[in-house]
Amino acid sequence: MRAPSAQFWLPMQRVNTLSKWDGKTSTVLNHTEGCGHNGLALTKQKTFLLACTNDPGAIVELDLTGKQLRRWGTDSNGKKFDGGINDIVVTANGGAYATVFGPYANPPIPTSIIGKILYLAPGGQKWVEVANDLNYANGIGVSPDQKTLYVSQTVSNCLLKFTIEADGSLSNRSNFALLNLLVKNKNDSSWLGPDSMKIDSKGNIYVAQWFGGKILKISPEGKLLHVFEIAAGDGTTNVAFGQDEDELYVTVVKDPKDTHAKGSIVKIKNIK
For the chain, which domains are there? Predict the structure, then answer.
């Protein structure tokens, strides 16, 4: 989800659409059957990188009207994105990172640990695998100084961090935050864990907790700064900043077990 200038660009996974909403009217910009529209990132070229989360996944580049410009279905070694693409973040130099999630069976029970992080270099044509063996990799973010990459492991209910090297490769993988040590688990779901995230200008991480009904604000040192409880539902999925980071816009599914994923957008005041 993006929310610049009081306009929202909303990927709708269940109906395979990307919509633009101005607060009154919703307009479908892209409909690609079988994509499972999920993570969305704005590039330096003013195009969108869209995560197709349906397995096997894909990454699609769109112009601002929703027209497809490029599509990737494999990495630099020709491997399909088994597990689906979940989220994407663009770096200050024009590169991008994306997460590969993992198998989502019916019934949805976590299975193989096949999550990955992919990297597209500035001006690059192919996505390169830079990390693997992640337990359902989900949200992803980069620190303001561009030196640290954060990624959610949903099933592990934790955030990882990596050092970003000059060539875009990753090193020094470590646990950054175990969410069950920061807040009490709301339930015993296997899917209780971090979803998408945003990072503010001070480097604080705002992460949505799927099945948890909350947004956690965490300092760069891993300290819990605030918990935003979301009354609209337990399926908090993403967060975006309003002007000057004074407000947060949160996407939330009322019941995360609902196969139709009916939800809403909630605006709340940030606590600085």
Answer: 4-269 (2.120.10.30)
